[in-house]
Amino acid sequence: MDSLAKTNRSRIFDVLSEGLLFVRGGESTCVYDTDADEVFQQEATFIFVTDFHEPDCFAVLDCYDKKYHLFVPHLPAEYAVWLGEIESLESIQKRTGCDYIHYTEELPTFWKEMPESKRLLITNKFSKGSVGEVPSSFTMTEDADKTIHELRMFKTPEEEGRILESCRILGECFRETIKFATPGRYEYQVDARLRYEGMMRGSRFVSFAAIPATGKSAATLHYIHCKKQLKDGDMFLLDAGVMYKGYASDVTRSFPVNGKFTEKQKELYQVVLDSQMACIEMLKPGVEWRDVHAKSLEMLTKGLLKVGILKSEFSLEEHLKNHTATWFQGHGIGHSMGLAVHDIGAFPEGRGRFSEPGYSSLRMNRILEPGIVVTIEPGCYFVDVVLNDVKKTPEKVKYVNFDKVAEYSAEIGGIRIEDDIIITKDGYKMLTNIPKTVEELEALKSE
Ligand SMILES: [Mn+2]
């Protein structure tokens, strides 16, 4: 085991000088009301603290003495028959580097024997229900979330390494899957191909249910139904990610299933790509996340004015003031990413969600700093329910040329382009490297 969790624990000890930090691991589960085991995936914060990927465990970090206690289940003998060899406590201790190892059944005694001077118990929301019976002399807080969210936001070199590997694997998955997504296949088969390619490269899990959307399906932002057949002429939107040792990646590519962009597809694709490039270029420490989002709306407005979907009889400023671009890009510019694909810590103390129009869908409210990993994912979609509302609203309808909307939406459901990026001391570093320009995608499709 590498030093990832050890580094994280010492970061926690640097912040918390007192208290017992209790973290609950993920639980083994069965499929609904059956005895069929589900595939176990470890809980994110537990990975952060322990990097131990077995179910039904707890960790206690003794911040007074900077010691790490690991609690593992006392497995019955028959486990060995049905599920495999039971690892000895010595072996687990060696493997995890924990200072002390216990069975989970010993937790009540552990609390009871804790000296009076060490009776501050800190948990997070996820863990608090599992602390068991704690003597009344303990003080309990749920402050752990605050501390852990903030630490998880800033990636250590070890964490960056894992995310980079996750992104590298995903790049290979995308290359194979984009080639595979041809007319006649089904959306769920595209999903299957991506999972296959990931597993073959060591990614046992995806980082979220993939969005493999052909034609009109791509107008649904989190489309996961996966039932439709790919037709010649369709644009395809593939938003997917894999996990590598607990760390996520998350990429979107949009491409024609027959391998050749039409003129209209190419034009609108370029609008989204220009927006993405402009947003990426502004990434550096000190930049407000909301300003990156504002840039994407500005770029989309300019692009839609150029292709004629937004009416140029109104000025750029007037379009921006009326948020006309948000009728075509209803989501935020991206999100933080790490152990979770939408990583926690995006709203630090004193900074909540935005309420003003055009900004309420943002998944983060922070100033960028080195070590933060973000996705940049502008898009442009023709969403019937949104556009029908625009059509019915006199103060909105005047800004949009619906003949143009009809022309473009006949060939495009939606386009999104997404990459993963880490903020560095003086700018940013791309973590993903997957064909993206019209030329690159057409060349890949013709391989
Ligand atoms: Mn994303």
In short:
Residues 1-130 form the Aminopeptidase P N-terminal domain. With 447 residues, the chain is α+β, with helices and mostly antiparallel strands. It contains 15 helices and 16 strands.
Characterise the protein shown here.
The structure is a single chain. The chain has 447 residues and is an alpha+beta fold. The protein has helices at residues 4-15, 44-50, 78-82, 89-96, 107-112, 144-153, 157-180, 187-200, 263-281, 289-307, 316-321, 384-392, 394-397, 402-409, 438-445; strands spanning 20-24, 58-62, 67-72, 100-103, 120-123, 139-141, 211-214, 235-240, 243-244, 247-248, 251-256, 373-376, 379-381, 414-416, 419-423, 428-430. The strands form 5 sheets. A 6-stranded mixed sheet has the order 4-3-2-1-5-6, with helices on one face. Strands 7-8-11 form a 3-stranded antiparallel sheet. Strands 12-15-16 form a 3-stranded antiparallel sheet, with helices on one face. A hairpin with a 4-residue loop joins strand 15 and strand 16 (428-430). The longest helix is centred in the middle third of the chain and has 24 residues, at 157-180. The relative contact order is 0.11. The model has no long low-confidence stretch (mean pLDDT 96). Bound molecules: manganese (II) ion. Manganese (II) ion is lined by residues 250, 335, 375, 377, 418. Manganese (II) ion (MN) is lined by residues 250, 335, 375, 377, 418.
